[in-house]
Amino acid sequence: MVYGVIRSFQAALKYRGGWRGLLEHMYTNGDYPFKFGTYMGHDAAGNRYYENRVDYPFGQHRWVEPGDIHNFDSASIPPEWHGWMTSMNDVPPSSENVFIKEKGRDIIPLDRSSVPSDGNSAVGHQEPVMNFHHLHNLTTVRSRGWGIGNPIVGLPPGAKDSYYTQPGSPYNEGSVRPRVDIGDLDAAKGGGRPYKSQKWADRLRTPQEKEELEKEKRRILEGAIEREREAARRRRAMMAARGSGTVVGSA
Questions:
Q1: pLDDT over threshold 70, residue 57
Q2: Which pairing describes strands 62-65 and 48-51: parallel, antiparallel, or unpaired?
Q3: Which of 176, 146, 181, 175 lies closest to 161 in space, CA to CA?
Q4: Chain centroid, CA 61 distance in Å
Q5: Is the dihedral of CA 226, 227, 232, 234 positive or negative?
Q6: Does the pTM of the predicted model rise above 0.70?
Q7: Distance between CA atoms of 189 and 204, rounded to whole angstroms?
């Protein structure tokens, strides 16, 4: 057992370029410094992918060594490499360009084109995709508080959050309706307390203003009741002046 550990350290020292590289990988990547396999390729983030079907069981035979060992996020693994690591397919994405180039030779062009025919033109128009810190899942790219950004993922203060929001959400800019005010409590003074609904106006009023408003409502209600009473008295007086009259349907 001791001999095996010594041999593993010797191999790791050679593979990692000395003690500094070995200790750095031991501190950041756990057992990866002592895990050896065939280099299968890398992605735009600098992540390096390896495979060893001989020394490791299924499920542990493929792994990734992060490009940024000090700040690694699993969301930086592209979908195509994620499918390879989880054994959804056995062909690494690094071989896709060769595959497309070979298959592109069998495609008969329908018309002349000025697009360089390098094989990739066979899959249609492609736009370069840029992700923040190579993160393909941008859920973590959000501020941790108002105006402080997110130092964990390197998001500066004041930067826009990048996570997806459903249509209709108040956090979705396309669903935010512009505010439309229907009045201002200080309109006579030049403005200062605009409101968009009567409920909003009630929140802005001071206790004294609310008390005066209640008094005004009672005064208006009392006036309406008094006018209704006066109208009822006039109706009774007019009926009395005409007499009882004839009741339809009486004998």
A1: yes
A2: antiparallel
A3: 146
A4: 34
A5: positive
A6: no
A7: 15
Q: Going by C-beta distance under 8 Å and a sequence separation of 6 or more, which residues neighbour residue 164?
A: 138, 139
Residues 6+ apart with CB under 8 A from 195: 181, 182, 183, 184, 185, 201, 204
Give the alpha-carbon dihedral of 25, 29, 33, 37, to 10 degrees: -130
DSSP readout, the chain? Answer: -HHHHHHHHHHHHHHHTSHHHHHHHHHHHTTGGG---EEEEE-TT--EEEE-TTTS-TTSSEEEE-SSTTS--GGGS-HHHHHHHTTS-SS-GGGHHHHHHHHHTTPPPSS--SS--SSGGGG--------GGG-S-GGG-S-SSTTT-BTTTTBPTTPPP-S---TT-TT-GGGPPPP---EETTGGGT-S-EESSHHHHHHHS-HHHHHHHHHHHHHHHHHHHHHHHHHHHHHHHHHHHH-S-PPTT--
Cβ burial 87-104 (10 Å sphere, 16+ → b, else e): eeeeebbbeeeeeeeeee
**Lookup result for tokens 């004294």:** 208
Q: Which residues pair with 155 in a beta bridge?
A: 150
For residues 112 and 179, which has the higher predicted lDDT (pLDDT)? 179
From 44-53, 116-125, 159-168, 241-250, the region with the lowest mean pLDDT: 116-125
How far apart CA 133 and CA 68 sit, in angstroms, is 10
